[in-house]
């Protein structure tokens, strides 16, 4: 299958631009439309993604209202949360499969308020009445047919799906780091897992914000969303719960003065320290094309412009409770957003999962 038409909503944003580059260089996809409202009518030159053969391509933005949704076999929505779910519904009703990059459709984010707003979306996205009455919590599999698109954890559901909720960038790094422990039953009930993570500023999108000005960010480093209140906690809690872990998660994001990349350090008390801790991750991700389990501590330079999670694990010395530290690095725009969205789209369209993706 070649020349499969795909559309991109929010194509002028950071994630949308990355999607334009990946789609333009993809061997089997072709761009049906790319939307931007403030920059409607503008033509931009999109370079080929690093690590993927291809030439620069010109992309002309159309207004979101003018997007020919029905022309696309699959639509990526890289719109801000709040706006995205409604456009995902429209794209799906127009006949397209959908990968929604926002938090709107992720587990733990579907609220009764959002579901009420979406109204007709219920049947289109196969949510049952149980989902509509749900308060802020993860819908069960019976309530929602929208898989959480953390591909390595949910591959078969993604392959069969019409609509996929692409994960947040921090959860991609942290959940890939923690999932093998949850699956191996090594997380004690009630244990406290601490995840500290730092992200480059493209994680915040490209809408103007005073706290993201060069002068505010450069040469500095700070936490934000502190007090365990960040928007990504619900999807991480829901996913850990679905993997059988009953733990407390404390997550603190930090803003790093680089353009792209996330490094997450997860400190995890375990029921018993495995003799060869790294083997747990090597076994869990054997054969995974986009997970690199390595001996050395991963850095942002290792993963920038690549659709991978690179991780390692070390036992923590000098503490009474057996404890591991898992270090995971990703590119927030690639495995954390556009790359993983294309990985999911490849599966949904019956293509090779790795097609068009920089490793
Ligand atoms: N940046 C990242 O690392 C990650 C982002 N995401 C998610 O991906 C999505 C896109 O993120 P990002 O690219 O960073 O965001 P940006 O703010 O950089 O881009 C947002 C895009 O949406 C358009 N847009 C904004 N508001 C509306 C609206 N009300 N209706 C229609 N179009 C609108 C913007 O264009 P215009 O203003 O011209 O309309 C722009 O094209 C978000 O949901 C984000 O949460 C997920 C994981 C990681
Ligand atoms: C540095 C920065 O601000 N990062 C963003 C996360 C980006 C992301 O993953 O976004 P969504 O969950 O919105 O899709 C934040 O902390 O809100």
Structure, explained:
By secondary structure, this protein is of the alpha/beta class. It is built from 12 helices and 14 strands. The chain folds into 2 domains: 4-167 and 337-348, Rossmann fold, CATH 3.40.50.720; 169-331, Dihydrodipicolinate Reductase, domain 2. The chain has helices at residues 14-25, 84-93, 112-118, 121-124, 129-132, 151-160, 169-183, 214-217, 233-242, 277-284, 300-303, 334-348; strands at 4-9, 29-34, 43-46, 57-60, 74-77, 97-100, 163-165, 192-199, 222-223, 248-255, 262-269, 291-293, 309-315, 323-330. The protein has a 7-stranded mixed sheet. It has a 5-stranded parallel sheet with strand order 2-1-5-6-7, sandwiched between helices. Strand 12, helix 11 and strand 13 form a beta-alpha-beta unit. The radius of gyration is 20 Å and the shape is globular. The protein starts with a strand and ends in an 11-residue tail after the last helix. Mean pLDDT is 91; it is low at 119-138. NADPH dihydro-nicotinamide-adenine-dinucleotide phosphate is lined by residues 10-16, 36-39, 64, 78-81, 83-84, 101-103, 168-169, 202-203, 205-207, 332-333, 336-337. Residues 5-161 form the Semialdehyde dehydrogenase NAD-binding domain. It holds the Pfam family Semialdhyde_dh.
């Amino acid at each position: 299958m070649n020349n499969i038409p795909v559309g991109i909503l929010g194509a002028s944003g950071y994630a949308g631009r990355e999607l334009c580059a990946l789609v333009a260089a993809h061997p089997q996809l072709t761009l049906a439309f790319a939307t931007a409202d403030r920059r409607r009518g503008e033509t931009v030159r999109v370079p080929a993604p690093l690590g993927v053969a291809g030439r620069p391509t010109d992309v002309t933005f159309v207004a979101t209202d003018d997007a020919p949704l029905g022309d696309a076999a699959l639509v990526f929505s890289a719109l801000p949360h709040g706006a995205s779910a409604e456009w995902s519904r429209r794209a799906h009703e127009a006949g397209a499969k959908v990968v929604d990059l926002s938090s709107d459709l992720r587990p733990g984010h579907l609220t009764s308020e959002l579901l009420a707003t979406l109204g007709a979306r219920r049947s289109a996205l196969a949510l049952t009445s149980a989902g509509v009455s749900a308060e802020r919590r993860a819908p069960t599999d019976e309530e929602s047919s929208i898989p959480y698109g953390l591909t390595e954890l949910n591959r078969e559901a993604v392959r069969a799906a019409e609509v996929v909720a692409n994960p947040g960038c921090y959860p991609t790094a942290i959940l890939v780091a923690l999932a093998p422990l949850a699956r191996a039953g090594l997380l004690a009930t009630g244990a406290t897992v601490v995840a500290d993570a730092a992200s480059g500023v493209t994680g915040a999108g490209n809408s103007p914000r005073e706290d993201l000005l060069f002068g505010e960010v450069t040469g500095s480093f700070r936490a934000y969303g502190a007090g365990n209140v960040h928007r990504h906690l619900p999807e991480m809690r829901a996913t850990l719960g679905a993997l059988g872990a009953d733990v407390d998660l404390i997550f603190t994001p930090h803003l790093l003065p680089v353009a792209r990349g996330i490094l997450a350090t997860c400190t995890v008390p375990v029921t018993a320290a495995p003799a060869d801790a790294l083997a747990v991750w090597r076994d869990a991700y054997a054969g995974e094309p986009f997970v690199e389990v390595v001996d050395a501590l991963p850095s942002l330079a290792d993963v920038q412009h690549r659709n991978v999670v690179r991780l390692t694990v070390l036992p923590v010395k000098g503490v009474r409770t057996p404890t591991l530290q898992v270090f995971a690095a990703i590119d927030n725009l690639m495995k954390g957003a556009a790359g993983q969205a294309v990985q999911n789209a490849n599966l949904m369209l019956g293509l090779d999962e790795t097609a068009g993706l920089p490793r």
